[in-house]
Design goal:
It is a single chain. The chain is α+β, with helices and mostly antiparallel strands. 23% of the residues lie in helices and 28% in strands. The chain contains three helices and eleven strands. Helix 1 runs parallel beside helix 3.
Length: 211
């Protein structure tokens, strides 16, 4: 039987193989600003007065005629405004964002704004007039200001659909297989085989891939 160290090493190799699949979704430079073509639905779910923490569900509604690739959707906490609609301190010009702790963020933009990935739903894409699953956003107010409003921008990628087949045109060549999907399928099969043989436990794999 493999030692725990050997199993951890094997899991690391598998995760390395999976890394290129997530590189695209983590790079905002490759995504398009969709803010003007979607509606951001922000729902306050809970408030902890002791810690001054607010929990929001933030989802995206596709208002455009285009289909958006579901796993490309990213929301960026663009600004926080006070009751007067201001987003900067009047005297110092400091952004109100710096007064808040944004918890469990997936990363930050080049100018320091927190961003979050929208979770994928049962469908691979966000079709026109449909809503995404919500991302959970937790914001802790260090200054204990009673009223504030978070505002978000949305980034993603439009799904390029195949052109409709013209009548009388010769049959098009079969679509090339998606190498990322094929790679993930191969990795999934390998992991299931390792679990079945007892080389890696399902619990170890879940811990290793937990965000």
């Amino acid at each position: 039987m493999m030692s725990r160290i050997q199993r951890c090493g094997l899991i690391g190799v598998i995760l390395t193989a999976l890394a290129p699949l997530d590189a695209f979704s983590a790079s905002l430079d490759q995504l398009t600003d969709l803010t003007g073509r979607v509606h951001v639905l922000v729902t306050l779910k809970s408030r902890d007065n002791f810690t001054s923490e607010y929990r929001y569900d933030v989802s995206v509604r596709n208002l455009s005629p285009d289909t958006i690739t579901g796993d490309s959707l990213v929301i960026v906490l663009d600004k926080i405004t006070n009751l007067a609609g201001e987003d900067h301190e009047a005297l110092t010009g400091e952004s109100f964002l710096k007064r808040f702790d944004v918890l469990d963020q997936d990363g930050q933009t080049s100018d320091g704004r927190p961003y979050f990935h929208i979770p994928s739903g049962s469908a691979p894409d966000l079709t026109p007039q449909s809503d995404s699953l919500p991302a959970i956003i937790r914001i802790r107010n260090k200054d204990y200001v009673a009223v504030f409003t978070p505002s978000f921008k949305v980034f993603g990628q439009k799904r390029v659909l195949p052109e409709p087949k013209r009548q009388g045109s010769p049959p098009s060549a079969a679509a090339a297989p998606d190498p990322a999907a094929a790679n993930r399928k191969t990795i999934d099969s390998l992991v299931q085989l390792l679990i079945k043989k007892g080389i890696v436990t399902e619990e170890e794999w879940k811990k290793a891939t937990k965000p």
